[in-house]
Amino acid sequence: MKIKRSNPLSRLIAGLLLGHLALAASPLQAQIRPLDRIVAIVDNDVIMQSQLDLRMQEVRRTISQRGADLPPESVLRQQVLERLISENIQLQMALRAGIRIGDEELNQAITSIAQRNSMTLAQFQAKLVKDGMDPQEAREQIRREMLITRVRQRRVAERIQISEQEIRNFLASDLGRMQLSEEYHLANILIPIPEAAESSAIQTAERLAEDTYRQLKQGADFAELAVARSASENALDGGDMGWRKAAQLPPPFDDIIRNLPIGGVTEPIRTPPGFILVKVLAKRGGDSLIRDEVRVRHILIKPSEIRSIEESRRLIERIHTQIKGGEDFGELAKNFSEDPGSALNGGDLDWIDPESLVPEFRQMMASTPSGQLSAPFRTTYGWHILQVLGRRATDNSESFRHQQAMSLLRNRRFDEEVQSWLRQIRDEAYVEIKQQ
Fold it and tell me: What is the CB neighbour count within 10 angstroms for residue 249?
């Protein structure tokens, strides 16, 4: 471990904390409690033995649930302590940067975790207790993880620079063409042909496939026919195959499907397993991309430590009343809006893809006629009002592919850059590990 010079403030904090802990174990107390102790000093904070013990328990439980063997205790302790040191450094960075995760945002995150695991909030908390975890400690651990994620997004993202040449090279590569090629949401019906089938069996299967195609052309429900007739493994799902890249489809399906409209069905195609009919349920990506865009402006009022959610609601309602009374939306946005990206432009977000917005904003925008003012509404960011200035359909193929390539390249580099950044901040921090 790299030896660093002593940080006076760190030692002062450690000394005060040790004194406090010693007092807690004073004979004056009716009951003697075990003395907690410092296992590491990290910049201006410390890691306690109790924190290390708790995390060790959690890690042992996780490893046991996976059915894996535990490493030697000394190895496990070193790994867990290093993880705690890394987290502590990042949490101190979040504190210095003024990053906060409020209770409301945390509640929404925990509810989302429960929903992703098909649980109610009460069921999720009961599961934590059953697994031997304190729900309150689990809650604070989720808060810490959210803070760490925010710090990484800010600090690592600014380290990643993607050049135009890298984007052009990626778009021209086989991998780029594969990842950005058009995708199709498909469903299929397979009319099987038995192995070593005689010609009569093949003709019977062909007639059934042609009858199926005829019924589909007359408006029959594809999913119902898939359940009734298909021998494909996804038959009970209505033949749903999910999303497939154009480059992943075997000939002749790649050419046939590329020319089919959404809702179109192929004629029966003979393959080794039998006759297959494929329906195009949806398309996305590819060389042509017509996107709906909306020109919108908004005013955002955020709850804070000095302004409650209810006070934020009352303020946005007053601004809403002022606009309805004839005051200028843009001037009020400049004076009140807390969206730094649009406030100076009078709240104008310019032309924007609705899919890039949070659901509550997108839904309100969709239900607000052009030129009209929305009612006040709430998102995870705070309270808003918006005004739709216009709508249009735009062919964004080139810019969309450029943005997709940029996003893919950044995501590929992010994990690698995170590890490099973690090594750097660990090396730059003052860390003193106490011997047991």
Answer: 17
The DSSP letter of residue 194 is -
DSSP labels for 377-430?
EEETTEEEEEEEEEEEEEE-HHHHHHHHHHHHHHHHHHHHHHHHHHHHHHHHS-
pLDDT of 23 strictly over 90: no
5: exposed, middle or buried (Cβ count in 10 Å: 0-12, 13-18, 19+): exposed
Amino acid in position 151 = V
Is the Cβ–Cβ distance between 190 and 202 less than 8 Å? no
Q: Give the end-to-end CA distance of the chain in Å, rounded to a whole number.
A: 16
pLDDT per residue as tens digits for the range 393-429: 765 566 767 777 887 788 778 877 888 899 899 999 9
User: What CATH number should be reported for the domain holding residue 197?
Assistant: 3.10.50.40
Indicate whether 55 and 89 sit together in one domain: yes
Residue at 404: amino acid letter: Q
pTM for the model stands at: 0.49
Sheet holding 290-301, edge to edge: 348-352, 290-301, 382-395, 377-379
DSSP letter at 265 equals B
CB 430 within 8 A of CB 46: no
Tell me how far apart the alpha carbons of residues 194 and 167 are, in angstroms, rounded to a whole number: 49
Whether residue 3 is found in the same domain as residue 92: yes
| CA–CA gap between residue 84 and residue 156 (Å, rounded) | 20
Closest to 339 measured CA to CA, from 377, 294, 299, 309:
299
Query: Are residues 390 and 297 part of one domain?
Result: yes
Partnered with residue 192 across adjacent β-strands are: 274
Structure tokens at 238: 């209505």
Convert the pLDDT of each residue in 135-162 to its tens digit.
Answer: 898 899 899 999 998 898 888 888 888 8
Locus of tokens 């004839």:
326
Which of 267, 247, 244 lies closest to 256 in space, CA to CA?
267
3-state SS assignment for residue 293: strand
CA distances from 49 to 38, 55, 90 (A): 6, 10, 20
Please state, in angstroms and rounded to a whole number, the distance separating the CA atoms of residues 274 and 266.
14
Is residue 243 within 8 A of residue 252, CB to CB? The reply is no
